[in-house]
Task: inverse folding
């Protein structure tokens, strides 16, 4: 990696002098910084990169604003014609998006809650007690989360078809093609990451906090529920944000384990849209952007939690 | 993980007898239920992948229809299965590109954004934005941008007409690159955030001391910042490998992972949900994928948890 950095043609030289000299002053105040060429170059570079980064999304949005007839006539990369939100409303109604949104929620919300509940329990046992199997246990969870999904899908797919479920639990009569099936695999897969992060955090909670309760004869469950868990609220919020997008954005599990169309979550359902509205990129863009709304909302509303969730896991390497 | 973390476990360890039978039951259940779930739905299938890889099973009918055929699946994969070589090549290319572009560029961006410049938060958000989009969605955007007649690139560069049209998504030599551009677009923000977190742990006093000693920015990075990033580098390495092996969604959306976009993950999927369901053969491919990922996961876990035990 170092070698690659050396070769990179970015204007590291001119940037460096200005900004390094500044860095000492920055610790005092940032407002009264003299505009240096280094800083300006850095901003130019970052603005340029940001624009490149936004371009695909902005282009998708621009396409979605235009009716198909206009782009068919003038080409997709053109200006003029009509602009409006007709594609969005069309996608919403014609592509049955509300139903698929609902499917996604039926899967995502329970999967998220169960994952956090189970992960926090494992983490509590591993972090607050000293059993011999703790490390092995945590390894099982952490490594499980790192496996490529495709490495386990073949037998899982077969198992799902063989495990029967009562009709009131799954319309398909088996784990395959059922909401429960998708929820279970998300929980099993994601608990690993959450348990790893939570156990690291719980270990930093001082033992003294539990000792008073212990003297009072509080049970292990009360220690978990009333002492440790409330202290984990910030981590739980971070993980919830992160896991929401991961589970909501899942495409692979849904593609294989949910092959009948009606129960599909929205990301997998979107795949069928391309077949249905083949050349109408305008409508597909609109649908794609609508599908992205929940994760975008979560991201903008909870950026801090989002980023800290990712980095909590990373920091512990 | 750090020194103070050691204390709580030791305190509890000193009086293990405080656990009542009831507490023992509670703790067993708390750890047991999730373990059963993860073992049952992740590790058992992983193990079964290995077992089934020695079999031939159309997947229709009960378990009694399984034929055990030894290493035949592997022999077929390595000798006469035409999709395997391109898939391995594409996975390796994916890994190489992820390693050469998003990893160093993400690090570079993180170092720049760590400089307490104005609007840093805004830049971070923009660069991170693609990470929250689903890869399936990025697959659609790939078509929007790289479609030969309607796409942004060809129309901007004048290659959309009948003459000199570049078929980004149809040409098996080109489409993997189009897909990789979009994959890198997302991956860079991911890596950037990891490094930003790592950079926060670098003591600013050290950087100032280096500056006072007359180190230029590159020297400061090389001798102060980079050594402090060692643990994050391990994480980034593992993420890069795992994400490359998991790659699936974008290519599947673009053309179901055919014609130049074969990946190991796609081959596994094709063998179970394609026209011919071949459970044994798919399992053999999955086992290969499993072995490759284990080569990276096991050393990673050992590093992480050894440090853990030392406290």
Result:
């Amino acid at each position: 990696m170092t070698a690659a950095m050396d070769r990179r043609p970015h204007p590291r030289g001119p940037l460096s002098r200005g900004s390094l000299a500044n860095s000492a002053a920055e610790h005092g105040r940032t407002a009264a910084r003299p505009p240096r060429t280094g800083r300006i170059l850095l901003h130019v570079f970052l603005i340029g990169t940001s624009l490149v980064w936004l371009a695909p999304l902005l282009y998708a949005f621009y396409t979605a604003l235009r009716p198909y007839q206009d782009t068919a006539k003038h080409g997709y990369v053109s200006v003029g014609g009509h602009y409006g939100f007709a594609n969005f409303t069309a996608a919403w109604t014609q592509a049955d998006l509300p139903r698929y949104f609902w499917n996604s929620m039926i899967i995502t919300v329970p999967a998220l809650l169960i994952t956090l509940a189970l992960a926090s329990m494992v983490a509590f046992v591993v972090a607050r007690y000293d059993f011999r199997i703790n490390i092995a246990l945590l390894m099982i969870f952490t490594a499980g989360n790192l496996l490529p999904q495709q490495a386990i899908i073949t037998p899982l797919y077969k198992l799902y078809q063989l495990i029967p479920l009562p009709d009131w639990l799954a319309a398909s009569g088996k784990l395959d093609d059922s909401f429960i099936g998708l929820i279970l695999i998300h929980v099993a897969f994601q608990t690993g990451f959450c348990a790893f992060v939570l156990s690291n955090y719980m270990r930093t909670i001082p033992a003294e906090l539990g000792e008073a309760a212990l003297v009072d004869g509080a049970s292990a469950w009360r220690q978990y529920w009333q002492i440790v868990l409330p202290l984990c609220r910030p981590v739980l919020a971070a993980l919830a944000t992160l896991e929401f997008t991961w589970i909501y954005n899942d495409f692979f599990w849904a593609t294989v384990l949910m092959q009948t169309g009606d129960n599909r979550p929205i990301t997998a359902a979107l795949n069928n849209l391309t077949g249905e509205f083949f050349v109408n990129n305008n409508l597909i863009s609109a649908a794609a952007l609508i599908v992205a709304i929940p994760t975008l909302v979560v991201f903008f509303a909870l950026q801090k939690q989002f980023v800290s969730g990712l980095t909590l896991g990373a920091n512990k390497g | 993980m750090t020194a103070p973390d050691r204390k709580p476990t030791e305190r509890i360890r000193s009086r293990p007898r405080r656990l009542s039978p009831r507490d023992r039951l509670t703790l067993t259940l708390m750890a047991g239920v999730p373990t059963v779930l993860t073992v049952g739905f992740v590790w058992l299938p992983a193990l079964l992948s290995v077992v089934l890889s020695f079999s031939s099973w159309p997947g229709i009918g009960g378990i009694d229809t399984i034929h055990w055929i030894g290493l035949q699946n592997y022999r077929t994969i390595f000798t006469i299965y035409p999709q395997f070589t391109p898939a391995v090549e594409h996975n390796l290319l994916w890994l190489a590109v992820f390693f050469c572009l998003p990893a160093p560029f993400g690090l570079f961006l993180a170092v720049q954004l760590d400089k307490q410049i104005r609007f840093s938060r805004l830049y971070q958000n923009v660069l991170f934005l693609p990470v929250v989009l689903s890869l399936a969605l990025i697959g659609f955007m790939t078509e929007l941008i790289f479609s030969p007649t309607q796409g942004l690139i060809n129309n901007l560069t004048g290659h959309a007409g009948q003459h000199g049209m570049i078929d980004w998504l149809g040409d098996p030599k080109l489409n993997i690159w189009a897909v990789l551009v979009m994959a890198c677009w997302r991956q860079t923000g991911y890596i950037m955030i990891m490094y930003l977190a790592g950079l926060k742990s670098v003591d600013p006093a050290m950087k100032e001391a280096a500056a006072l000693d007359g180190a230029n920015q590159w020297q400061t990075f090389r001798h102060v910042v980079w050594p402090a990033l060692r643990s994050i580098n391990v994480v980034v390495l593992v993420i890069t490998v795992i994400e490359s092996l998991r790659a699936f969604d974008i290519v599947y959306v673009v053309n179901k992972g055919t014609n130049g976009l074969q990946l190991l993950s796609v081959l596994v999927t094709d063998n179970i949900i394609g026209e011919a369901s071949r459970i044994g053969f798919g399992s053999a491919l999955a086992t290969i994928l499993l072995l490759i990922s284990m080569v990276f996961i096991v050393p990673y876990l050992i590093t992480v948890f050894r440090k853990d035990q030392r406290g």
Q: What stands out?
A: The CA atoms of residues 67 and 194 of chain B lie 47 Å apart. Chain B touches chain A through 134 residues (CB under 8 Å). The longest helix of chain B spans residues 21-52. Strands of chain B lie at 55-56, 67-68.
